[in-house]
Write a structure and sequence with these properties.
Length: about 250
Amino acid sequence: MKDLVSIITPCYNSAEFIEETIQSVLNQTYENWEWLITDDLSKDNTVEIIRRYNDPRIKLQVLEKNGGAGNARNNSLERAQGRYIAFLDSDDFWYPEYLETMTDYMEEHHAELVYCNYSRCNEQLQPVLKDFLADKVVTFSNLLKTCRLAPVSTMYDTKRVGKFLFPVKSKREDHVMWLNLLKVIPEGMPINKTLAKYRMRENSVSRKKKNIIKDQYLVYKDFMGFSTVKSLYYTANWAINGFLKYSKIFN
Protein backbone atom coordinates (compact mmCIF):
# COMPACT_ATOMS: atom_id res chain seq x y z
CA MET A 1 0.00 0.00 0.00
CA LYS A 2 1.18 3.50 -0.78
CA ASP A 3 2.33 5.71 2.08
CA LEU A 4 -0.07 8.20 3.59
CA VAL A 5 0.32 11.86 2.60
CA SER A 6 -0.73 14.51 5.12
CA ILE A 7 -1.92 17.71 3.45
CA ILE A 8 -1.51 20.80 5.64
CA THR A 9 -3.90 23.71 5.07
CA PRO A 10 -4.53 26.87 7.09
CA CYS A 11 -7.60 28.83 6.10
CA TYR A 12 -9.12 32.16 6.97
CA ASN A 13 -12.02 33.83 5.15
CA SER A 14 -11.45 31.60 2.11
CA ALA A 15 -15.05 31.11 0.97
CA GLU A 16 -14.40 32.69 -2.43
CA PHE A 17 -11.75 30.16 -3.44
CA ILE A 18 -11.94 27.12 -1.12
CA GLU A 19 -14.21 25.02 -3.36
CA GLU A 20 -11.69 25.07 -6.22
CA THR A 21 -8.96 24.06 -3.78
CA ILE A 22 -11.06 21.22 -2.37
CA GLN A 23 -11.89 19.93 -5.83
CA SER A 24 -8.21 19.90 -6.80
CA VAL A 25 -7.51 17.59 -3.85
CA LEU A 26 -10.48 15.33 -4.50
CA ASN A 27 -9.28 14.96 -8.12
CA GLN A 28 -5.85 13.62 -7.12
CA THR A 29 -4.84 10.35 -8.78
CA TYR A 30 -3.00 9.47 -5.54
CA GLU A 31 -5.78 8.58 -3.13
CA ASN A 32 -4.05 7.70 0.15
CA TRP A 33 -4.11 11.12 1.77
CA GLU A 34 -5.51 12.87 4.80
CA TRP A 35 -6.27 16.58 4.70
CA LEU A 36 -5.71 18.49 7.92
CA ILE A 37 -7.51 21.81 7.53
CA THR A 38 -7.25 24.31 10.37
CA ASP A 39 -9.62 27.24 10.17
CA ASP A 40 -8.29 30.34 11.89
CA LEU A 41 -11.72 31.55 13.07
CA SER A 42 -13.06 32.67 9.69
CA LYS A 43 -15.75 35.33 9.67
CA ASP A 44 -17.29 34.20 6.37
CA ASN A 45 -18.85 30.82 5.49
CA THR A 46 -15.56 28.99 4.81
CA VAL A 47 -16.29 26.36 7.48
CA GLU A 48 -19.81 25.77 6.19
CA ILE A 49 -18.46 25.12 2.68
CA ILE A 50 -15.83 22.65 3.88
CA ARG A 51 -18.38 20.74 5.95
CA ARG A 52 -20.50 20.11 2.86
CA TYR A 53 -17.90 17.60 1.64
CA ASN A 54 -18.60 14.21 3.17
CA ASP A 55 -15.14 12.66 2.83
CA PRO A 56 -13.57 11.10 5.96
CA ARG A 57 -10.10 12.05 4.69
CA ILE A 58 -10.95 15.74 5.19
CA LYS A 59 -10.29 16.57 8.84
CA LEU A 60 -11.33 20.08 9.79
CA GLN A 61 -10.53 21.80 13.05
CA VAL A 62 -11.77 25.30 13.88
CA LEU A 63 -9.63 27.29 16.27
CA GLU A 64 -11.19 29.21 19.14
CA LYS A 65 -8.80 32.12 18.69
CA ASN A 66 -7.17 33.62 15.59
CA GLY A 67 -3.43 32.95 15.71
CA GLY A 68 -2.11 33.44 12.17
CA ALA A 69 -1.15 31.09 9.34
CA GLY A 70 1.94 29.68 11.08
CA ASN A 71 -0.06 28.69 14.15
CA ALA A 72 -2.80 27.14 11.99
CA ARG A 73 -0.25 25.13 10.01
CA ASN A 74 1.33 23.91 13.24
CA ASN A 75 -2.07 22.75 14.48
CA SER A 76 -2.47 20.68 11.32
CA LEU A 77 1.08 19.35 11.53
CA GLU A 78 0.58 18.19 15.10
CA ARG A 79 -2.44 16.16 13.98
CA ALA A 80 -0.74 14.74 10.88
CA GLN A 81 -0.18 10.97 10.69
CA GLY A 82 1.30 10.66 7.20
CA ARG A 83 4.82 9.89 6.10
CA TYR A 84 4.84 12.69 3.55
CA ILE A 85 3.96 16.29 4.37
CA ALA A 86 2.43 18.44 1.62
CA PHE A 87 1.20 22.02 1.92
CA LEU A 88 -1.77 23.58 0.18
CA ASP A 89 -3.10 27.00 1.10
CA SER A 90 -6.85 27.47 0.94
CA ASP A 91 -6.76 29.52 -2.29
CA ASP A 92 -4.23 27.45 -4.26
CA PHE A 93 -4.66 24.55 -6.67
CA TRP A 94 -3.01 21.24 -7.57
CA TYR A 95 -3.13 19.42 -10.89
CA PRO A 96 -4.53 15.87 -10.52
CA GLU A 97 -1.12 14.19 -10.76
CA TYR A 98 0.57 16.39 -8.13
CA LEU A 99 0.68 13.95 -5.20
CA GLU A 100 1.45 10.93 -7.36
CA THR A 101 4.32 12.64 -9.20
CA MET A 102 5.87 14.04 -6.03
CA THR A 103 5.69 10.81 -4.01
CA ASP A 104 6.90 8.66 -6.93
CA TYR A 105 9.96 10.89 -7.33
CA MET A 106 10.74 10.81 -3.61
CA GLU A 107 10.52 7.03 -3.49
CA GLU A 108 12.53 6.47 -6.67
CA HIS A 109 15.30 8.92 -5.77
CA HIS A 110 15.23 8.50 -1.98
CA ALA A 111 14.74 12.25 -1.72
CA GLU A 112 14.02 13.93 1.59
CA LEU A 113 12.48 17.07 0.07
CA VAL A 114 11.22 17.83 -3.43
CA TYR A 115 9.68 20.84 -5.15
CA CYS A 116 8.13 21.40 -8.57
CA ASN A 117 7.23 24.15 -11.03
CA TYR A 118 4.08 26.15 -10.36
CA SER A 119 1.97 28.62 -12.32
CA ARG A 120 1.69 32.17 -10.95
CA CYS A 121 -1.91 33.17 -11.46
CA ASN A 122 -4.41 35.92 -10.76
CA GLU A 123 -7.53 35.41 -8.67
CA GLN A 124 -9.24 33.68 -11.62
CA LEU A 125 -6.33 31.19 -11.84
CA GLN A 126 -5.14 32.67 -15.12
CA PRO A 127 -1.32 32.94 -15.49
CA VAL A 128 0.09 36.44 -14.99
CA LEU A 129 3.80 35.51 -15.04
CA LYS A 130 5.88 32.71 -16.48
CA ASP A 131 5.78 29.53 -14.44
CA PHE A 132 8.19 29.49 -11.52
CA LEU A 133 10.68 26.77 -12.43
CA ALA A 134 12.13 24.13 -10.17
CA ASP A 135 15.45 24.11 -11.97
CA LYS A 136 18.03 24.05 -9.17
CA VAL A 137 18.94 21.79 -6.29
CA VAL A 138 18.06 23.72 -3.12
CA THR A 139 20.55 23.96 -0.26
CA PHE A 140 20.69 25.96 2.95
CA SER A 141 23.28 28.23 1.36
CA ASN A 142 21.32 29.19 -1.75
CA LEU A 143 18.02 29.34 0.15
CA LEU A 144 19.45 32.18 2.24
CA LYS A 145 19.56 34.42 -0.83
CA THR A 146 16.18 33.59 -2.31
CA CYS A 147 13.34 31.31 -1.28
CA ARG A 148 12.71 28.89 -4.12
CA LEU A 149 10.36 26.75 -2.03
CA ALA A 150 6.64 27.52 -1.90
CA PRO A 151 4.14 25.59 0.22
CA VAL A 152 1.97 24.78 -2.81
CA SER A 153 4.84 23.03 -4.61
CA THR A 154 6.95 21.38 -1.90
CA MET A 155 6.83 18.06 -0.05
CA TYR A 156 9.07 16.39 2.52
CA ASP A 157 9.45 12.96 4.10
CA THR A 158 8.89 12.84 7.88
CA LYS A 159 10.27 9.29 8.07
CA ARG A 160 13.66 10.67 7.09
CA VAL A 161 13.64 14.19 8.53
CA GLY A 162 10.86 14.36 11.16
CA LYS A 163 8.32 17.18 11.39
CA PHE A 164 9.23 20.85 11.16
CA LEU A 165 6.93 23.44 12.73
CA PHE A 166 6.53 27.07 11.71
CA PRO A 167 7.68 30.00 13.89
CA VAL A 168 4.53 31.81 14.99
CA LYS A 169 6.26 35.14 15.59
CA SER A 170 7.59 35.61 12.05
CA LYS A 171 5.69 37.05 9.09
CA ARG A 172 8.13 35.08 6.91
CA GLU A 173 7.37 31.78 8.62
CA ASP A 174 7.64 29.71 5.43
CA HIS A 175 11.20 30.79 4.74
CA VAL A 176 12.29 30.22 8.34
CA MET A 177 10.81 26.71 8.34
CA TRP A 178 12.49 25.77 5.05
CA LEU A 179 15.84 27.10 6.28
CA ASN A 180 15.55 25.09 9.49
CA LEU A 181 14.79 21.98 7.46
CA LEU A 182 17.73 22.56 5.09
CA LYS A 183 20.03 22.84 8.10
CA VAL A 184 19.59 19.12 8.73
CA ILE A 185 19.34 17.72 5.19
CA PRO A 186 21.87 18.34 2.42
CA GLU A 187 19.50 19.31 -0.39
CA GLY A 188 16.03 19.53 -1.84
CA MET A 189 15.51 18.09 -5.31
CA PRO A 190 13.71 19.80 -8.24
CA ILE A 191 10.99 18.31 -10.42
CA ASN A 192 10.90 20.42 -13.57
CA LYS A 193 7.19 19.93 -14.21
CA THR A 194 4.29 22.31 -13.54
CA LEU A 195 1.95 20.61 -11.08
CA ALA A 196 0.35 23.47 -9.15
CA LYS A 197 -1.17 26.93 -9.37
CA TYR A 198 -0.33 29.71 -6.91
CA ARG A 199 -3.01 32.37 -6.68
CA MET A 200 -1.49 35.86 -6.39
CA ARG A 201 -4.27 37.75 -4.65
CA GLU A 202 -4.50 41.52 -4.78
CA ASN A 203 -4.19 42.00 -1.03
CA SER A 204 -0.85 40.16 -0.96
CA VAL A 205 0.62 41.47 -4.21
CA SER A 206 -0.08 45.08 -3.20
CA ARG A 207 2.26 44.79 -0.22
CA LYS A 208 5.21 44.52 -2.61
CA LYS A 209 8.64 43.39 -1.60
CA LYS A 210 9.74 46.70 -0.07
CA ASN A 211 7.05 46.40 2.62
CA ILE A 212 8.40 43.10 3.94
CA ILE A 213 12.13 43.80 3.85
CA LYS A 214 12.16 44.33 7.62
CA ASP A 215 10.42 40.99 8.16
CA GLN A 216 12.98 39.31 5.92
CA TYR A 217 15.86 40.96 7.79
CA LEU A 218 14.50 39.43 11.00
CA VAL A 219 14.61 35.98 9.39
CA TYR A 220 18.40 36.25 9.41
CA LYS A 221 18.91 38.36 12.52
CA ASP A 222 16.45 36.78 14.94
CA PHE A 223 15.80 33.28 13.60
CA MET A 224 19.15 32.38 12.02
CA GLY A 225 21.17 34.28 14.63
CA PHE A 226 23.32 36.12 12.08
CA SER A 227 25.20 39.33 12.79
CA THR A 228 23.76 42.67 11.65
CA VAL A 229 26.15 42.90 8.70
CA LYS A 230 25.52 39.33 7.61
CA SER A 231 21.75 39.82 7.98
CA LEU A 232 21.86 42.98 5.84
CA TYR A 233 23.91 41.16 3.20
CA TYR A 234 21.38 38.35 2.83
CA THR A 235 18.43 40.74 3.00
CA ALA A 236 19.89 42.70 0.08
CA ASN A 237 20.37 39.52 -1.93
CA TRP A 238 16.83 38.39 -1.15
CA ALA A 239 15.39 41.79 -2.17
CA ILE A 240 17.21 41.83 -5.50
CA ASN A 241 16.22 38.25 -6.31
CA GLY A 242 12.65 38.96 -5.23
CA PHE A 243 12.42 41.96 -7.52
CA LEU A 244 13.65 39.87 -10.45
CA LYS A 245 11.18 37.13 -9.54
CA TYR A 246 8.18 39.46 -9.63
CA SER A 247 9.46 42.44 -11.64
CA LYS A 248 6.70 42.22 -14.25
CA ILE A 249 4.09 42.91 -11.56
CA PHE A 250 5.83 46.05 -10.34
CA ASN A 251 6.33 47.60 -13.80
